[in-house]
Amino acid sequence: MESEASRNWNKVLGISVAVVIVIGVAFVIGAFAVGPSRAKAGGGYLPSAVLTMPVGNLPARTADGNALTLLVRIAETPEARKAGLASVGTKALDATVLLYVQPKITTARITYVMSGICAPLELAVIGELGDIVAIKKVEANAKSIAITERHRYVLAAKEGVLGKLGIVKGVSVSPVDMKRIS
Questions:
Q1: Which of 53, 70, 86, 138 could form a disulfide with 58 if both were Cys (CB 3.0 to 4.6 A apart)?
Q2: 14 vs 165: CA distance, rounded Å
Q3: Residue (of 149, 159, 103, 104) closest to 126 by Cα position
Q4: Measured between alpha carbons, how far is 97 from 49 in angstroms, rounded to an integer?
């Protein structure tokens, strides 16, 4: 026969285990709710639209003739081109270069969506032969940018990043020789 003290102890133990479980569940729910917003606030956030874009090594040649390889995210679908660098955190933009890929050489003005960017960008417009024909600046609050130059590719990065890498007007890149990593 079980004593009253033993029954009370089992009752206290059961309540304690239930409380620990409730606190654990609340912690996990809180981590999922608060974690992403903390990452965004820290500036290192990459949205899933960017994370799911393929990655490639893009060969280039700087103005002084040095070989260079850029690690790029590839926006080749209409959805990826529309998402672009929207919602990418400012710190993540320091290391993110996006290559917009059009299905063919453009013969008319093309508008790229820029809403949701959190820092000024620069775009390197790539001509038919792989040469950078223009560098365009995009303000952080811009909704879009129109590019009138004939192109099939555009490199996008945080303002100053492409210049630091040696990507300036007249430099040559070779998207057709790009090696996909994923």
A1: 70
A2: 62
A3: 149
A4: 14
Alpha carbon 94 to its chain centroid, in Å, reads 10
Contact 88, 117 (CB under 8 A): yes
Question: Are the CB atoms for 126 and 101 separated by under 8 Å?
Answer: no
Give the length of the chain: 182
Residue 21 carries which side chain, given as an amino acid letter? I
Rg (CA), the chain: 25
**pLDDT tens for residues 65-102?**
889 999 999 999 999 999 999 999 889 999 999 999 99
Q: Is 138 exposed, middle or buried (0-12, 13-18, 19+ CB in 10 A)?
A: buried
Q: Among the CATH numbers 1.10.10.10, 3.90.1150.10, 2.60.120.1140, 2.40.110.10, which is that of 48-180?
A: 2.60.120.1140
- The pTM for the full model equals 0.76
